[in-house]
Design brief:
Blueprint: E1 28-32, E2 38-41, E3 57-59
Antiparallel strand pairs: 1-2, 1-3
Keywords: DNA-directed RNA polymerase, Metal-binding, Nucleus, Transcription, Zinc
GO molecular function: DNA binding; DNA-directed RNA polymerase activity; zinc ion binding
Organism: Amylocarpus encephaloides
Length: 64
């Protein structure tokens, strides 16, 4: 019986749709709840306003 061998190279993490989880993809626009400035965030970015540091962000409505 052989013992378990740890893999040496990991495959890149992928989500359900095949996109990499490393921050690729479009930036989503949010509005700061405190200073009302626009904040664009990508996957993995800290949820924090870049102007005032407030952590409550509201997603903008989509334009249909």
């Amino acid at each position: 019986m052989s013992s378990y061998q740890v893999p040496t190279a990991q495959a890149p993490a992928r989500d359900t749709f095949g996109a990499s989880l490393t921050g690729e993809g479009p930036a989503i626009n949010y509005l700061c709840g405190d200073c009302n400035s626009k904040v664009s965030l990508k996957r993995g970015d800290p949820i924090r306003c870049k102007e005032c540091g407030h952590r409550v962000l509201y997603k903008e409505r989509t334009k249909r």
